[in-house]
Amino acid sequence: MSNQTERRAAATVADPRWAVVVARDPAADGRFFYSVRTTGIYCRPSCAARPARPENVAFHDTEAAARAAGFRPCLRCKPDQLPAAALQAAKVADLCRYIEAADPAPTLDELARRAGLSSYHLHRVFKAVTGLTPKAYATAHRARRLREALGRRGSTVTDAIYDAGYNSGGRFYDEADGVLGMTASRYRAGGAGTQIRFAIGQCSLGAILVAQSDRGVCAILIGDDPDTLAHELQDRFPKAQLIGGDRAFERLVARVVGFVEAPRIGLDLPLDVRGTAFQQRVWQALRDIPAGRTASYTEIAARIGAPTAVRAVAQACAANALAVAIPCHRVVRSDGALSGYRWGVERKRTLLEREAQT
Question: Are 42 and 19 in contact (CB under 8 A)?
Answer without folding.
Answer: no
